[in-house]
């Protein structure tokens, strides 16, 4: 569904969808959401799966479209969908509740999925969204088909991962997995408003005009970092498989479709789109067969340990030749004790090796992500991270993002604080800030509602934030 159809109620007439998937905004406050946010790929997968099954889905990206409750209400009134699906996270439940109330007002059955529903389906169903018909725990591509069948047949039948209001509270089951290779390709020109993002980037001393599209090809993550909710979202502790990756032909087909839509650049937003040198080689071979060499630019994420220990210089040269202009890595800390504590599975030596090797073979940009202020982290350990970042800059690191640690439900760190410092969790309410043109200000993960005197780390939040600012300013020369 296109944003151009959000007009007065009498103009909206796209036919009645079986389900309207609404990507819940991070906030209804205008001027906060950036213009280059990626599409809701979880919902896109649900849309193409339900369409393949024979249902008529529609997608309303209220987040990227920066829609108000009134505009969403207009769409509900005009389309009269047979059901609505929403995807609240832990930080936008109030916004999702406003949408849920609109659905209840129109008498539209509400389906809840995504992060918030998966981490605690019964709290979501019984307390936060008592008006909801059902909650999906886990991936929604197959679960939505069951729920839509039930709506059509006027029944409520049990299915793995589908929780109706009368579900047994002892249940922990996740929804069945829909194989990624069997999903139809996602044609973003049909589902996404303005999927192509234009911009100029500096590559090897030249300004290059990129027309970039985001792709998300995998699901889950094979690692178990303590600050990340992914292990809980994929059911690691319940014995479920934690990482899914389609075959390379599928990834190359998505790449080909992206180019046909007008992109000359791809941003793989997966945590791990490529997990070994063989993946790099197969992708490069595919780019060559598609005759896209020297025409396609791409960027993505991987692990420092993979680059340092598994990739030869020849492997990485092939990576550069395939059009890779930026590799990003989650590093998080320069302190070995912290890295072990958060189960990052890398060492500072591997990070140094990875940065050096990537730059040596001609990857133009190497980015790293860091977090400061982990529970009980000392100022000295943060200082170690600051010095490590400056060392990496000398080795060729070109860009960084630093976040002040914030605990989220479903993570090991959240559970740790519940046991050791529960009063901290009572003082957390997160809001996103943005809009600055200054590179340092843009990169400061500032949370106005994280009190200055709150002590998650060994020092107050204000001190952690000051260290983040100091490090960013030093790296970027401000």
Automatic annotation (TrEMBL):
GO MF: 4 iron, 4 sulfur cluster binding; catalytic activity; cobalamin binding; metal ion binding
- InterPro entries in alphabetical order: BchE-like (IPR051198), Cobalamin-bd (IPR006158), Elp3/MiaA/NifB-like_rSAM (IPR006638), Methyltransferase_Class_B (IPR034466), rSAM (IPR007197), rSAM_horseshoe (IPR023404), rSAM_sf (IPR058240)
Q: Cofactor(s) for this protein? A: [4Fe-4S] cluster
Q: Keyword Magnesium, does the record have it?
A: no
Is the keyword Iron in the record?
Answer: yes
Which parts of the sequence belong to the Radical SAM core domain? 203-447
Where would I find the B12-binding domain in this sequence?
25-158
* SMART domains cross-referenced by the UniProt entry: Elp3
What CDD domains has UniProt attached to this entry? Answer: Radical_SAM
Q: What is this protein called?
A: Cobalamin B12-binding:Radical SAM
Q: Which UniProt keywords apply?
A: Iron, Iron-sulfur, Metal-binding, S-adenosyl-L-methionine
């Amino acid at each position: 569904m296109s944003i151009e159809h959000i007009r007065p109620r009498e103009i909206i007439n796209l036919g009645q969808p079986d389900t309207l998937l609404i990507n819940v905004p991070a906030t209804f406050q205008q001027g906060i959401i950036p213009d280059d946010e990626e599409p809701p790929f979880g919902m896109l997968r649900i849309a193409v799966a339900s369409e393949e099954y024979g249902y008529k889905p529609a997608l309303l990206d209220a987040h990227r479209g920066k829609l108000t409750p009134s505009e969403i209400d207009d769409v509900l009134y005009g389309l009269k969908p047979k059901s609505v699906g929403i995807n609240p996270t832990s930080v936008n439940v109030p916004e999702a509740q406003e949408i849920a109330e609109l659905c209840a007002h129109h008498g539209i059955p509400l389906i809840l999925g995504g992060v918030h529903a998966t981490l605690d389906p019964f709290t979501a169903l019984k307390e936060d969204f008592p008006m909801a018909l059902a909650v999906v725990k886990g991936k929604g591509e197959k679960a939505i088909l069951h729920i839509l069948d039930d709506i059509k047949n006027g029944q409520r039948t049990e299915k793995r991962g589908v929780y109706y209001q009368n579900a047994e509270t002892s249940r922990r089951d996740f929804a069945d997995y829909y194989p990624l290779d069997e999903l139809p390709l996602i044609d973003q020109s049909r589902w996404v408003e303005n999927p192509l993002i234009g911009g100029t980037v500096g590559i090897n001393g030249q300004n290059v005009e990129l027309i970039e599209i985001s792709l998300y090809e995998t699901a889950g993550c094979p690692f178990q970092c303590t600050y990340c909710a992914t292990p809980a979202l994929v059911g690691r502790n319940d014995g479920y498989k934690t990482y899914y990756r389609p075959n390379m032909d599928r990834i190359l087909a998505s790449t080909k479709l992206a180019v046909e839509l007008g992109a000359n650049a791809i941003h793989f937003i997966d945590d791990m789109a490529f997990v070994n040198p063989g993946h790099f080689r197969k992708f490069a071979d595919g780019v060559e067969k598609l005759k896209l060499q020297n025409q396609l630019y791409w960027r993505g994420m991987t692990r420092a340990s993979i680059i340092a220990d598994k990739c030869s210089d020849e492997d990485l040269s092939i990576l550069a030749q395939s059009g890779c202009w930026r590799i990003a890595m989650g590093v998080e800390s320069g302190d070995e004790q912290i890295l072990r504590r958060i189960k990052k599975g890398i060492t500072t030596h591997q990070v140094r090796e990875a940065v050096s090797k990537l730059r040596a073979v001609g990857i133009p940009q190497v980015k790293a992500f860091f977090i400061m202020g982990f529970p009980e982290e000392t100022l000295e350990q943060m200082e170690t991270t600051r010095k490590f970042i400056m060392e990496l800059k000398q080795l060729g690191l070109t860009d960084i993002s630093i976040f002040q640690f914030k605990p989220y439900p479903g993570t090991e760190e959240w559970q740790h604080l519940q046991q050791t410092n529960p009063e901290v969790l009572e003082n957390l309410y997160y809001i996103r800030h943005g809009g600055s043109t200054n590179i340092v200000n843009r990169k400061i993960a500032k949370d106005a509602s994280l009190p200055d005197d709150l002590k998650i780390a060994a020092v107050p939040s204000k001190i952690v934030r000051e260290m983040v600012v100091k490090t960013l300013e030093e790296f970027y020369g401000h």
